[in-house]
Amino acid sequence: MRKGVIRPGHVEIRVLDIDEAVKHYVDLMGLIEMDRDDKGRVYLKAWTEVDKFSVVLREADEPGMDFMGFKCVSEEVVDQLRDQLLDFGLQVEDIPAGELKDCGRRVRFRAPTGHFFELFATKKQTGKWEIGNRNPEAWPRGLVGMAASRFDHCLLYGPNLSETLKLFREVLGFDLAEQVLAADGTRVAQFLTLSMKAHDVAFIHCDEPGKFHHASFFLETWHDVLKAADLLSMTDTSIDIGPTRHGLTHGQTIYFFDPSGNRNEVFAGGDYHYPDHPPVTWDAEELGKAIFYHDRVLNERFLTVLT
């Protein structure tokens, strides 16, 4: 049993219009609205998730990501990691239980890339949507849109990748599953995992700190990705790229934008990772094939449009 950080827990996304955002994430992507709070935030989950929520939407003047949270195995681990974060030289903020509805206390810190992350151990569990955990059916009836099955990862842009990798490996227990190296050996992208997944969080070098590239949600099959593409066209939703396959992680994917300009991904498949696996390495000159395996050509918008 993993003794520290176990998985992604949630992401809080800033949106310009909360009603438009809810329509996008619920009606189109198929997330389930679970609650709202007195700050106007909306709490969503995907149907396979056990915790009450994995996505929080907050209305703001500009889009982007407020923070990404990781769940720990116990409150004791949160305390241990808090001390280790301080020893690493980071400032921490203690956020009391209940600040996010039905979530326990959280320890927030800012990574060298400029992004805010937080650790927590306690959150109300509501079980898999409608089917529960005892004698469950294959899937719940009444799912809508893309029927995304879980919040999977975020891709973030910022500086100081080496220091961030050290933090996530040595303090938080992540493995480096995949990387992109420049000709001089500098790492310009890193894909980090806590499990057998291809990645739970990924970083690409950018001089400007704290930039949000996308939040990603898992679908079961390539056919589901194609259905997602159909739904995007049916709703005149802005598509960034796809459907296609990545070279990195080999996932089958499509990217698109929410009404506020935040990028979303839904994908299926992808590689697996064990702790004894060496990192998969891509050369930067092969980045076109690494990102868009079929076209092998970079989409400039994919690299430069950030929130």
From TrEMBL:
Cofactor(s) in the UniProt record: Fe(2+)
By its UniProt entry, which Pfam families does this protein fall under?
Diox-like_N, Glyoxalase
Question: What's the catalysed reaction?
Answer: catechol + O2 = (2Z,4E)-2-hydroxy-6-oxohexa-2,4-dienoate + H(+)
- List the CDD domains: 2_3_CTD_C (cd07243)
Q: Does the keyword Hydrolase apply?
A: no
The record ties this protein, via SUPFAM superfamilies, to: Glyoxalase/Bleomycin resistance protein/Dihydroxybiphenyl dioxygenase (SSF54593)
InterPro entries, alphabetized:
Catechol_2-3_dOase, Fosfomycin_Res_Enzymes, Glyas_Bleomycin-R_OHBP_Dase, Glyas_Fos-R_dOase_dom, VOC_core, Xdiol_ring_cleave_dOase_1/2, XylE-like_N
Keywords for this entry?
Answer: Aromatic hydrocarbons catabolism, Dioxygenase, Iron, Metal-binding, Oxidoreductase, Repeat
Give the VOC domain ranges.
7-122, 150-269
EC numbers listed for it are 1.13.11.2
What's an example of a GO molecular-function annotation for this chain? catechol 2,3-dioxygenase activity
Which superkingdom is the protein from?
Answer: Bacteria
Q: How does it assemble?
A: Homotetramer.
Family stated for the protein in its record: Belongs to the extradiol ring-cleavage dioxygenase family.
Know the name of this protein?
A: Metapyrocatechase
Q: Provide the species name.
A: Marinobacter shengliensis
